[in-house]
Design goal:
This protein has 15 helices and no strands. It is mostly helical. It folds into two domains: about 140 residues, no CATH class; about 170 residues.
Length: about 375
């Protein structure tokens, strides 16, 4: 047999084995792929801090990785846990007091009755007004119970999330400790030249930093300002609603209006027209414009991507990955743009020849 043929057969067998076994392995760890990816992202962002600890500890990588992980947890996870505790407390208080109070106000609210009389079809529903109020009260009661149950109950999902969080910490520790050697090995197997590999890696890290920074700043500003507005107009549990709007601010187009528009309508129904108008104006003109003004500046400038790529990357990431998609979606969009740029540079001569051939054929 021709040695060249034998070599080609061996290469085909090796390639098939790599594809099949890799596919089997990825299928086996599929439930943890998102956790592993997030651990890699956060480990990459903590590399400067890890290098500082590495210099202080005399190049002890395990100790430096542990110190970096602890610093990350103290600076990020613990404040988040404290905020969640405050929000949970206010949510429980809301379900026990505010919603029943609204329900009672609806039953005898003159403002609500006055609003009904202004409807063009009021005479058709006048005989059903008591039933409408009763159903509205029942709905609010079920809403309060749902809020309380979702926060107070310890579910299987919460236990599984805790399990994934432990995996995240464990994986992040080893990414910090051995990440450099792992990246060198991966780069050795990737059939791209060194400059293109470094370009993709730099784009990955820069987009991740910009996306996290932009999303965090926008969420904090929108949540804080909206929560302050709720407090000023006298809406209870302002911290809870501000936190909810901060989380929702990451969703393009939808975001915080899901909360403040119903709140404005509720205040108008209860007869507080001045507060309702002030809340609507402030949230629409100030809170609502923060995202439009700051996101292109904080995210688009650093990532050097068009707003449409950021927009669809965020939407697509949320749809495919859930909340982590806020980070992963724009990163994938940026890598998509970068890969096509590399493609254009690599095959530039062939593409020029094709354009010339097309031009020549059209003449």
């Amino acid at each position: 047999m021709n040695p060249n043929n034998t070599l080609n057969i061996n290469r085909i067998v090796v390639l098939l084995a790599v594809i099949l076994i890799s596919g089997l392995f990825l299928s086996m760890v599929r439930p943890f792929l998102l956790t592993i990816l997030l651990a890699g992202i956060f480990a990459g962002l903590q590399v400067p801090l890890f290098n500082r600890f590495l210099a202080l500890s005399g190049q002890r990588r395990s100790l430096s990785a542990a110190m970096t992980l602890v610093a990350f947890l103290l600076s990020f996870i613990l404040p988040l846990a404290g905020l969640v505790t405050v929000v949970a407390t206010q949510a429980i208080s809301l379900s026990r007091t505010a919603i029943p109070l609204i329900r009672e106000q609806l039953k005898g609210s003159a403002g609500f009755n006055n609003l009904l009389t202004q409807l063009p079809f009021y005479h058709d529903i006048e005989s059903y007004s008591d039933l409408i109020l009763q159903k509205a009260a029942e709905y609010l009661g079920r809403l309060g119970s749902a809020v309380f149950d979702s926060i107070s109950a310890i579910t299987y999902s919460a236990a599984y999330d805790l399990f994934l969080f432990l995996i995240f910490c464990y994986t992040m520790f080893f990414f910090l400790k051995d990440g450099q050697r792992l990246m060198e090995k991966i780069q050795a197997y990737v059939p791209l030249n060194e400059s293109d590999q470094q370009r993709l890696l730099d784009r990955f890290l820069s987009v991740t930093r910009a996306t996290m920074k932009g999303s965090l700043v926008i969420a904090l500003l929108q949540g804080s300002l909206a929560g302050l507005a709720f407090y000023v107009v006298g809406i209870e549990s302002a911290v809870f609603w501000g936190t909810v709007m901060a989380v929702l601010s990451i969703m393009p187009l939808v975001g915080s209006p899901i909360i403040w528009i119903p709140a404005t309508i509720g205040m108008a129904i209860s007869g507080h027209y001045l507060q309702a108008a002030g809340l609507a104006l402030f949230c629409s003109l100030v809170v609502g414009q923060i995202d439009n003004i700051l996101r292109p500046i904080l995210v688009g400038r650093d990532t050097q991507m068009h707003e449409l790529f950021i927009f669809f990357g965020t939407l697509g990431g949320l749809g495919m990955f859930g909340i982590p998609g806020i980070i992963i979606g724009p990163v994938i969009a940026a890598l998509f743009v970068t890969v096509w740029e590399i493609y254009g540079e690599t095959f530039s001569e062939a593409l020029v020849d094709i354009r010339k051939a097309k031009g020549g054929g059209s003449e």
